[in-house]
Amino acid sequence: MLVQQILKSKGDGPVITIKASTSISEAAHVLAERRIGGLIVSEDGTRVEGILSERDIVRSLALRGSVCLEERVGDLMTRNPVCCRKDETTDAVLQKMTNGRFRHMPVTEDGKLVGIITIGDAVKARLEELSMEKDALQGMIMGH
Ligand code: AMP
After folding, report:
1. Mutate which of 15, 17, 41, 53 to test ligand 1's pocket (most atoms within 8 Å of Cβ)?
2. What is the pLDDT of residues 86-96, one digit of tens each?
3. What pLDDT digit, counting tens, does each position of 4-21 carry?
4. Mean predicted lDDT score pLDDT of the chain
5. pLDDT tens digit string along 67-79?
6. Distance, CA of 133 to CA of 144 (rounded, Å)
7. How far is the C-alpha of 31 from the C-alpha of 42, rounded, in Å?
8. Residue 102's domain spans which residues?
9. Whose CA is nearest to atom 6 of ligand 1?
């Protein structure tokens, strides 16, 4: 399965982004409100500058305490995150996420943000694929 098929199944809603100048406290509210674990950081909603995950906030809270809530998204985000293209396979994306030990991946086209894939999306797509392969093999063995 390709990334573009996953994006299609998720619907065409805009990707939620946040500006680097936003406070960490505000970012935590957005994450909680939207029930998501990561935010793409972008000034104009298309050029990806970074990614802020709930893990970045938790790590900072543990290391430095609540003072980090007053800091900016740009202070804690991971710059230049690994991105993927719409024509990449689920397998390739899962490999990149596993190797890099992260669970979010922006999807870009000609340098512009067009979607986001989470490890949950990729695992779900892969399981569907494996289930279809199993049914096809079973059909071949049973002769129907
Ligand atoms: P996550 O597992 O996605 O919640 O993120 C774990 C760590 O990896 C955090 O420090 C994130 O900022 C960072 N991270 C998340 N996604 C990416 C990505 N696509 N490329 C590079 N780093 C990332």
Report:
1. 53
2. 999 999 999 99
3. 999 999 887 889 999 999
4. 95
5. 999 999 999 999 9
6. 14
7. 16
8. 3-142
9. 102
Q: What is the tally of structural domains in the chain? A: 1
Q: Which of 104, 105, 117 to mutate to test the pocket of ligand 1 (most atoms within 8 A of CB)?
A: 104
pLDDT at 144: 65
What are 98's two structure tokens?
Answer: 């596993």
Please report the DSSP string for the chain in residue order: -BHHHHHHHH-SPPPPEE-TTSBHHHHHHHHHHHT-SEEEE-SSSSS--EEEEHHHHHHHHHHHGGGGGGSBHHHHSEES---B-TTSBHHHHHHHHHHHT-SEEEEEETTEEEEEEEHHHHHHHHHHHHHHHHHHHHHHHHT-
CATH number at residue 129: 3.10.580.10
